[in-house]
Amino acid sequence: MLLGSTTVNGKGWCELKNLKQLDLAGNNLGGSLPDCLGNLSSLQLLDVSGNQFTGNIASSSLTNLVSLEFLSLSNNLFEVPISMKPFMNHSSLKFFSSENNKLVTEPAAFDNLIPKFQLVFFSLSKTTEALNVENPDFLYNQYDLRVLDLSHNNITGLFPSWLLKNNTRLEELYLSKNSFVGTLQLLDHLYPNMIELDISNNNMIGQIPKDICLIFQNIEDLSMGKNRFTGYIPSCLGNISSLEILDLSNNQLSTVKLEQLTTIWFLKLSNNNLGGKIPISTFNSSNLVFLYLGGNNFWGQLLDLTLYEQKMWIVLDLSNNHFSGMLPRWFVNSTVLRSIDLSKNNFKGPIPRDFCKLDNLEYLDFSENNLSGYIPSCFSPSSLVHVHLSKNRLSGPLTYGFYNSSSLVTMDLRDNSFNGFIPNWIGKLSSLSVLVLRANHFDGELPVQLCLLEQLSILDVSQNQLSGPLP
Length: 471
Description:
It is found in: Membrane. One of its GO terms (cellular component) is membrane. The chain is mainly beta. It folds into two domains: about 1-155, Alpha-Beta Horseshoe (Leucine-rich repeat, LRR (right-handed beta-alpha superhelix)), CATH 3.80.10; about 295-470, Ribonuclease Inhibitor (Leucine-rich repeat, LRR (right-handed beta-alpha superhelix), Alpha-Beta Horseshoe), CATH 3.80.10. The protein contains two helices and 37 strands. It has helices spanning about 160-165, 210-215; strands spanning about 20-25, 30, 45, 50-55, 70, 75-80, 95, 100-105, 120-125, 145-150, 155-160, 170-175, 180-185, 195-200, 205, 220-225, 230-235, 245, 250-255, 265-270, 275, 290, 295-300, 315, 320-325, 340, 345-350, 365, 370-375, 385-390, 395, 410, 415-420, 435, 440-445, 460, 465. The chain has a 19-stranded parallel β-sheet, with no helix packed on it. The chain has a nine-stranded parallel β-sheet with strand order 21-23-25-27-29-31-33-35-37, with no helix packed on it. A five-stranded parallel β-sheet has the order 11-13-15-17-19, with no helix packed on it. The longest helix is centred in the middle third of the chain and has 6 residues, at about 160-165. It is globular. The N and C termini lie far apart (about 65 Å). The model is unreliable at about 1-5 (pLDDT under 50).
């Protein structure tokens, strides 16, 4: 019985004793679950996700539905007991999802209950607010999990290596945005089915285990960012033939030894203590299109990467390092490039006209370098949303740079040496919200076309040579 886009009136449907599947997902149903729901003794699948149901599950009619195999309570206003006590006798239960509800604790007497079910899928993400909780005790008695999601809670304690020990067929484990502490203790056991592991946004310390590649030899997505891992990045990670996404950002890693990277298309190593010349091997992957290396101590010039000028980059972030020399051009043929951030480096010289080829660019940040010269008049990507060129030595009039960038929301050109009039065409940038031209050499009057910018929330033209009346 599917009711995914309707409303439910009356309780007659609660008399359908032979009903096996009931889908009420994606409505605006509210209030408590009706008591008569407990009459559906044959029900195997119940999906009430995406509604506004309320009440404590422990006192609801769900406790009577012992034939359930699939239960989704996600995205409601339920109170869900962390002990899973209401479902201890649901021996057929395999799938349980309760994302975006409220997790409630119970007396310690319920902590040692042993459930009759063996779950395959369990998701309890985004269920706590300021509540400090430990891992649900019933999980100590689960041995067949394939997918486990406890992310976006405030679960405390050591990394639960026992979860891996008990569930050797795990495929996806999500523990991000919790408060796990200590080192990453991996057991001497292979997990060939594990394809996604996310332990980001915790307080883990120590080195990344050197045998991580052997233990998770078929991993596809490995996210360990925003912890306090130290030491080196194991070189073997680049040799995992299945690895596509690697995020080790916002740690304290100091050495990168990655090689090959043959299958990785998303690499995020930003905000670590990595240094030296950027490893050329980083660019060897023909699949690599998202690269984040910002906030490290890399140095040197980037002009010797012409072998990679045919790569189709989508995002390049090399910001806040110590790169020097002229702006590189090896990405200008990337017609799908959406974002490039080279800010806070020591690049010098002009912005090359080759950059006019970047028709699909949405985000550009070259701020806090030593760039000089004019902005090419042909540089005006229509898709450009945010441009940051502040704190350089750019000069000359704006002419027609950004003339066709009708999607611009932010234009920050402060602390340069631009001169001449503020162009009238700026009034055509109907989406512009932030315009910062402070500390340049603009002269003449403020164009009346500025009054056409109905979305404008910040306008800073201070420290110029403007004159005349306000428009």
